[in-house]
Amino acid sequence: MIALLLALGSSLAYGCADFLGGLGARKAHVLRTVMIAAPASLTVELLLWPLLGASFSPGALAWGAASGLASAVVFALLYRTLAIGPMNVLSPVTALVSAALPVAVGLLQGEHLGSAAPVGLVLALVAVVLVSAGHGTGSARPSRTALLLACGAGGAIALQLVFLHQAPSDSGVAPLIIGRAVSSAVTLTAAGLLRHRLGTERPAYAMSAGAGALDSLANLLFLLAARSGDLAVVAVLTALYPAGTVLLARGVLAERIHRGQLVGLGTAAVAVGLLALA
After folding, report:
1. Do residues 144 and 93 make contact, with C-beta atoms less than 8 angstroms apart?
2. 3-class SS at 85?
3. Torsions phi, psi of 54, nearest 5?
4. How far is CA 238 from CA 9, 60, 80, 86, 161, in A?
5. R_g over Cα of the chain
6. Percentage of the chain with pLDDT > 90?
7. Packed helices 30-52 and 2-27: angle between N→C axes, nearest 10 degrees
8. For residues 70 and 47, what is the distance between their CA atoms, to the nearest angstrom?
9. Distance between CA 76 and CA 72 in Å, rounded?
10. What is the mean pLDDT of residues 227-253?
């Protein structure tokens, strides 16, 4: 139950971070948003160091750096996918792949789930697709390139989560700090190389910093959940993050929640109940 609650907290934090990051990206180039979010995220993780400890063992350094590189790849692929579109088709693909691969890794590593868990996992995967799909999902056909990029982005997200899970359980927040430092260095370098294409708009500093801080919180909750529970269950529940974004968009921006998304939210609730029983 502790792992389940931590995973749901991680999912909610990821969803809130995406919501703030999306609002920030409306005001300035997405790289300008990342230039604020990345240092803010790293600052939060450094502040957590004295509270939760950090052991910079070779394993923590290696897996943390690997997760950071995967995080940078996520950004690059998602940005390119967004440019190609349509995101109302590609977002469910990305979310489904990001959930399915860690499930496979967890089961291959010998995780044993209760009798109700398989049904809960399947329902959670269905909920991921339904919640992250916007209105008119069937109105446009993505290109093969766009589908490959969406799958690649989902795979990179999955690898980031798997790499964090592989870090030594006694390493504290060291993998998070190393991963964030690596991903920040990569994205800031990219921003420097593309500075002439970023435009002159000023970023939304508060929103961008808030997105970075929430992303750090989400990573921390996922790491704690994965250390106390099964990766297969934790990864699927974490992949429900679009639900938080959808609910915030409804409450703050008065955006309509479509029928399929409501069904997805209900399916997610049933899936969580089954996984809790398992």
Report:
1. no
2. coil
3. -155, 125
4. 8, 22, 23, 23, 10
5. 18
6. 25
7. 150
8. 23
9. 6
10. 81
Question: Residue 64 is which amino acid?
Answer: G
CB hemisphere CA count around 195 (13 angstroms) = 5
Q: How far is Cα 9 from Cα 218, in angstroms, rounded to an integer?
A: 7
Residue 89 pLDDT > 70? no
- 235 pLDDT above the threshold of 60: yes
DSSP tag of 115: T
pLDDT digits 0-9 by tens, 182-233: 988 988 888 788 778 777 778 778 888 998 899 899 999 999 999 988 888 8
Cis peptide before 58 (omega within 30 of 0): no
Q: What is the pLDDT of residues 174-193, one digit of tens each?
A: 999 999 999 889 888 887 88
Q: Which residue has tokens 């529970």? A: 229
**Crossing angle of helices 174-193 and 205-228, rounded to 10°:** 140
Residues listed for the chain: 278
Q: Which residue has the higher pLDDT, 134 or 50?
A: 50
Q: Is 28 left (phi over 0), alpha (psi -120 to 50) or beta?
A: beta
Would you say 90 and 81 are in contact if contact means Cβ atoms under 8 Å apart?
Answer: yes
Enter the tokens of residue 127: 């909920």
Distance CA 174, CA 171 (A): 6
Of 9, 10, 1, 4, nearest in space to 219 by CA: 10
Residue 137 has pLDDT above 50, yes or no: no
- Output the furthest CA–CA distance in the chain (Å, rounded): 56
Least confident stretch, 55-59, 75-79, 95-99: 75-79
pLDDT at 25 over 90: no
Q: Rounded CA gap, 236 and 69, in Å?
A: 22
Q: For residue 140, how many C-alpha atoms fall within 13 Å in the half-sphere facing its CB?
A: 16
